[in-house]
Write a structure and sequence with these properties.
By secondary structure, the chain is mostly helical. It has eleven helices and two strands.
């Protein structure tokens, strides 16, 4: 049920994307996510898809390892797509059967919504696939360091996020083991209505929570036994340094973000409709 979950799992390869500074990858991921919400045309989605494919190729990642991250939210994607398809009733009517109406605007809105969600989740998953939890924690701590001036526990927050990322694959693995054990005892999770399936998950959630608290206690005792604390006296084994690769990656994503902004706010004001130029009468 929860097999092959990609989120939170690091994929080790010696690629240019893996060698980028974690701080740069965090900032560029935020820039990528912001750009997706500015997209208004199909040209923008095509450009974003091309950028995503280029990054996946440079990172030497199997494309399926990226698409697996979408599988976990597939139900949400399909559900929101159906709502938009049947509840947006403005524009040219394409299909009408009683009270069921599908319009041209509804189809375009649904397609763009699905593309936005898939590209958003796939792009965000690249951060976890190409960056270790320790690198993410160090990068996040470095970016949040100005908050120390107002007494924000930056090191504690970074450590909490690092531990949470490390535990995500472990929790899914534990869930699969519990489900397999329950199925061996005659439990069924794939039949019945949605309420029956939710009720069938209760024998899974209870031992999962118990095991999670037990693991948390063991980790706390282990950290305490090693005299861990988050004081400012702590140092890092490896210090991150910016290089030419980080600069090139920043220029690449900044250029992509600029084109997205131009497509949304400038091209159409001067009479340049790239969607009509590419797709013609299809739109």
């Amino acid at each position: 049920m929860f097999k092959d979950v990609a989120f939170g799992q690091y994929y080790p390869t010696n690629s240019p994307v893996h060698r980028l500074d974690a701080r740069v990858k965090l900032l560029l991921t935020l820039l990528y996510v912001a750009a997706i919400f500015f997209i208004k045309s199909y040209f923008g989605f095509m450009l974003t898809t091309a950028v995503l494919i280029i990054i996946v190729a440079l990172a030497r990642l199997p494309i399926m390892s990226v698409l697996k991250s979408v599988r976990g939210v597939l139900f949400i994607v399909v559900f929101t797509a159906i709502i938009n398809l049947f509840f947006i009733k403005d524009g040219e009517v394409l299909v009408q059967s009683g009270s069921l109406i599908i319009t041209k605007n509804g189809v375009h809105t649904t397609i763009k919504l699905v593309l936005r969600l898939v590209l958003l989740i796939s792009g965000a998953s690249l951060l976890a696939l190409t960056t270790t939890p320790v690198q993410l924690a160090d990068g996040l701590e470095s970016l949040m360091s100005p908050l120390k001036l107002i007494k924000v526990p930056v090191r504690d927050i970074a450590m909490i996020m690092s531990i949470a990322l490390r535990f995500i694959p472990t929790l899914f693995e534990e869930t699969n083991k519990i489900i397999a054990a329950q199925k061996a005892r005659g439990a069924c999770f794939d039949t019945g209505n949605i309420f029956a399936r939710i009720k069938a998950m209760l024998p899974v959630l209870i031992p999962l929570f118990i095991n999670s608290f037990r693991r948390a206690d063991e980790l706390a005792f282990a950290m305490d036994a090693r005299c861990y604390n988050a004081t400012d006296k702590r140092t890092r084994f490896k210090k991150a340094k910016l290089g030419w690769g980080d600069l090139i990656a920043f220029v690449f994503i900044a250029g992509y973000f600029t084109v997205i902004l131009l497509d949304r706010y400038y091209f159409r004001t001067v009479g340049i409709d790239i969607d009509s130029m590419i797709f013609g009468e299809l739109l």
